[in-house]
Amino acid sequence: APWATVLVQFMKALAPAAFMVGILHAQSPYASFIILVFFPLLLLWMAVLALEPEIRGLGMRRALFLALPNFSRIFALLLLLMLTGGLFFSLLDTGPAWTYLNLISWVVRLNSEQMEQFSAVVLASLTYFFHFLIYGMIVTGFGLMYYSLVEIMEANQLNQRIREIGRKRQIRGLEQETA
User: Fold this and answer.
1) Local confidence band at 83 (pLDDT 50, 70, 90 cut-offs)
2) Which among 86, 97, 74, 81 has a CA at the least distance from the CA of 152?
3) What does the alpha-carbon distance between residue 163 and residue 166 come to, in Å, rounded to a whole number?
4) Chain-wide mean pLDDT for the chain?
């Protein structure tokens, strides 16, 4: 029943998404501050729900376990990705974008009113494209951050290698000869 799994994952993602939409629709003067603080936590919460299917409930406890000791890392990642996204958005209103629009006007014969409409549609399309590209970049970054935080907090691979010390007969990585 793969559809049942998809439905369960969708229902789990509704809680963080509803919380995010509630913050965005709040008419509070502190909404931008709340978004800046809680947006990384909500993205990590969604990553926990998506990448740990065996988790019971809403997974908020697990997300907080990973996020609170490492909030500076999470916040730094968000700022870095938002800065990168801002640079992408700054490309929209630059000379090359308008040069490409002018090149299109050389190929396709449009009067000034049609050219204004065409440029508005093209720039709106590019804005949506960059918006979804940046959001996808942020979501992917937090998905990868999830794995980093799990390894930082639990160190599963390190603990496994520590348990293997002394079980194998090796000297500096080479098999030890038996007498």
Assistant:
1) very high
2) 74
3) 8
4) 83
Query: Which pTM does this prediction carry?
Result: 0.72
Summarised one tens digit per residue, pLDDT across range 161-179 is: 888 776 766 666 666 666 5
Phi, psi (deg, nearest 5) at residue 155: 50, 50
Q: How many CB atoms lie within 10 A of CB 76?
A: 12
Query: How far is Cα 170 from Cα 177, in angstroms, rounded to an integer?
Result: 9
Can you list the positions of beta strands (E) in the chain? 170-171, 174-175
Burial of 82 from C-beta contacts in 10 A (0-12 / 13-18 / 19+): middle
C-alpha dihedral over 41, 45, 51, 53, to 10 degrees?
Answer: 160
- Which pLDDT value is given to residue 3? 76
Q: Which amino acid is at 50?
A: A
Say which residues have a Cβ less than 8 Å from residue 143's Cβ, sequence separation at least 6: 47, 50, 51
What's the CA gap between 20 and 45, in Å, rounded?
Answer: 11
- Provide the token pair at 176: 């030890």
- In this prediction, residue 106 has a pLDDT band, given cuts at 50, 70 and 90, of confident
DSSP state at residue 179: -
